[in-house]
């Protein structure tokens, strides 16, 4: 499957690479950038230890030939750790990630997660909605994100992912600053059971109640929103929760974010 | 016609002999048991289980008998074989799916004879060729430890070899033939000319450790060499090359200090080497948990084997720093200059302008035995997938290498590896784009 995407992209990549080589040799930092400039001296730091991560993910996330490598900086440590373990334990599937995390101990994975969660790196401006996009798609997306859909018993994104949609410490990720490609790929993966979280898997239940058009709508709207000035994850779920919604009762217990389970009940 | 009849006759004889041998062994063993009523356990049950836990680690049993993310010991992990997949069995004490209804004797029979409780012949994906050497005491301890695991019922039944292997490889006649050719039950016999430590090391390497299951060549029947054949082999299922532990030019066991062999097994790294690929899993899950005394015993045994081998077949000495590249690679200047430019842009920052690496972080590539191995499969794997050495107590925060599978093409990986294999004293053969392509294709990408 991967090969199919890879071959048509090779030509493009080739030209990109030539350009990159030219750029790096003239001292411009690009490939493998981040805190580590090309040619920078070795330092005994976490930045050095996580080269294998930033080579693909970059500082702010980066489009790769086989999909989008999401931003790691500033995501809640608990969320990042859960994802590392999901790859190691087969709840998420990406061979490169699995191979990288497999030999590492829980303690080290935790340190890596904490390192990225504490990085404060500005967000690039969100993409503009395509001119051809029907406004009704954006409206539907916005409604799902901010209000949910009571008729489908779907809670709003903001109920768990924070009022500012920048996540909640320690386990709920922010949803802004990510491109449409990535967001729709993740929702699609939940739909086809390719991505799972520890049971009870609340996201799987949310996604199961939405059709593909809804998933695209909410991903599209999220991808066009700029993170505001408060672009850090909220510190605690409980105080920032809106009026407890019925949809967020015990049935929405989240195995990957235990702090959510007691709220709303 | 005559040939097929002849073949049939041979097959029948082989099967009969095999079954007969097994029957005979079985009755002999029963007689032995009768005359020797089960010896009073020297350890109380807690101590026995504790000893068993240690041995489970030493044998890395649960690595195969636990599925990714699944409950410990509940089986279901797919083991790739040339004949199809074999799914590991559930070793937890669940009465329906696991060993809940087994006795220590049934367990011993599985380890020692390669037969299940119901008499079914086990597939050799379970390395009973090695486990047959495990002593009865150790077998009892292993069983005691397994009986303390959380009993787990499998959500879905684990596929039986007859369902997952291509016909006829899981059939009783096929297994009987395989066994008669490649398996003989036996226990480890001490070599009286060697020290107690040496014998302990040999017992661990040949038995529980089942090192030769990877570190020996496999034949067309999927059978590996003798339990003490450590001459290296290609691991078809995962596509890594398990280097010879005998040949000093491959792994340096004859010329390394015992302490550094122990260090590698304990921490995953030492001054001149670090483990990667399947061996990283072995260090992470098995050897790092072993006692220093056992690791020393294994190092002693392995080194003595490597020294004996070197006496017969002197190793190719590591090239000197200023030796010139081989003629074959010299003849391809464009290929080499492409490799050089990739090296400078992608590798040099960590591995150094002269392939010297960074002590304690990134391995040196200059005169590195793993770089110079005749078979470049492992190097290609490392460049394609990158990776970390195992995080161990002795090396808890390892540095890692990024994958290049998405950024470099086959030809570029071949060029940079050829460059690396021909610089700074390295004198190994060229890596071709075909080598790289083969590894990439076998990984399914």
Q: How is this structure best described in words?
A:
- The complex is a heterodimer of chains A (265) and B (445).
- Chain A is mainly α.
- Chain A has helices at residues 2-25, 46-49, 51-57, 77-88, 95-101, 106-118, 135-146, 157-161, 180-191, 202-208, 212-223, 237-240, 258-261, and strands spanning 62-64, 67-69.
- Chain B folds into 3 domains: 10-182; 196-312, Cytochrome Bc1 Complex, Chain D, domain 2 (Orthogonal Bundle); 327-442, Cytochrome c-like domain (Cytochrome Bc1 Complex, Chain D, domain 2), CATH 1.10.760.10.
- Chain B has 20 helices and 6 strands.
- The radius of gyration of chain B is 24 Å and the shape is globular.
- The two termini of chain B are 45 Å apart.
- Residues 14-20 and 26-37 of chain B have low confidence and may be disordered.
- Chains A and B meet through helix 1, helix 3, helix 5 and helix 6 of A and helix 13 and helix 16 of B.
Layout of strands and helices, then pairs:
The complex is a heterodimer of chains A (265) and B (445).
Chain A: H1 2-25, H2 46-49, H3 51-57, E1 62-64, E2 67-69, H4 77-88, H5 95-101, H6 106-118, H7 135-146, H8 157-161, H9 180-191, H10 202-208, H11 212-223, H12 237-240, H13 258-261
Chain B: H1 2-35, H2 45-58, H3 61-64, E1 78-81, E2 84-87, H4 104-113, H5 128-131, H6 136-147, H7 161-164, H8 172-182, H9 196-206, H10 212-215, E3 233-235, E4 240-242, H11 248-251, H12 258-267, E5 269-270, E6 273-274, H13 278-285, H14 292-312, H15 327-330, H16 333-351, H17 369-372, H18 377-385, H19 410-420, H20 433-442
Helix pairs in contact in B: 1-8, 2-6, 4-6, 9-14, 12-14, 16-19, 18-20, 19-20
